[in-house]
Amino acid sequence: MKLLNTLFILILSMVILSSCGGEQASSTIDLMKYGMPIKIHAPQDAEITSDDLGIMQDVTVKYGDDFNIQIFSGSTIENSAADVAAKLKNEVINGTYFSEIVREEADGFVFKKDIDGSIDYDFRYVKLSGGSDFVFQTGLYGKYTLEQVETMFASVKK
What we know:
Elements: H1 2-20, E1 26-30, E2 39-43, E3 47-52, E4 57-63, E5 67-75, H2 81-93, E6 98-105, E7 108-115, E8 118-129, E9 132-138, H3 146-157
Antiparallel strand pairs: 1-2, 3-4, 4-5, 5-9, 6-7, 7-8, 8-9
């Protein structure tokens, strides 16, 4: 009986600890009130900032050091998100620190950067809506692992 009680307490403790230390719950965030008619999945308590840059809108969705998405929107002349993504891919490949494309989809891609021996990951993803394009990428400040970038990439595709 004593062994059963000890086992029960051990299992209960593990359940409590795993629920306390788990990842922040994700929710759908509507960015319409920030001037963007789009939704993404992000941690519930994410901080959202918006900046009107004149010819484009800039919205950042950040939660801690692991989740930081920057979204730029402006008028588009392209007919498809794939066309915009292809242009962005060309720009990235010709960039100074580009190393390799890790994942490629029609509307976006994940890539690796090598900054003087320091490995970092980033992504670009494109959505078109109402004559505007929305370009998603990691926030400008921070260094991200492939796992973190894959999580952010998936959150904007939903």
